[in-house]
Design a protein that fits this description.
about 70 residues, mainly alpha, about 65% helix, about 0% strand, globular
Length: about 70
Amino acid sequence: MWILPLLFLTLGFAGALFGLGRFFNPARERLPLQQMDQAAVLHTIARGWSVLNSAQSLSRITSRLHPRCP
């Protein structure tokens, strides 16, 4: 019975990492979602993990969301 909540948490976390990795991937390198294979999805999740672990990740996220702020 404990496997379902663990599965939902794992997939949710992987989805959040995928979203971060996709957001920080430059537009010229970004593949359309229909053309992404398993290796590209795993690379995007790994990119999201590295963004999350970087020391200045929160300042980079807020500077991208509000580019007019110094």
